[in-house]
Please model this.
Amino acid sequence: MDAIRSFLSTQYDLITESRAVLLEYCGQLSTQELNTQNSSFGRGSVSNLLVHIGNTYLFWIGEVCMKKEMAYLDYGTIISIREIHHHFSKADMLMTSFLKDDHRDMLSTSDYSINGVKGTAPNFKIITHVLTHEFHHKGQILSLTRHLGYVPVDTDIMR
Model:
């Protein structure tokens, strides 16, 4: 495994450990709280934000980088944290496969199209995007739970 791939694999391991803390914390939420809509946040609910994070991995890593056809979860369809765990297991399998592929150059580019706008980006940039994107929305999730009356848990890499 080359140095970039090794670095990214280690980084993703740290992110999945942090995500596990978040998902354990979200396991405290009732089904109603998991799906409570709050218009102050994009995507509106904890479950929708978690679906969005997982779908983003499926799109960027699965569809764009690996050229696989992906089945995305619809917003508003999750009723349990167990379903969220299953959704993230798909993202984890994709990332593991992507990062272990010795024939894939992390600095090569992948083509994509979003809402009819085409672009090209290095795989390293795409990976950086999905990782930082997860943390952005994790902060929103923790804020949403604060609005529900919970004291958010520390989900930082350095805890």
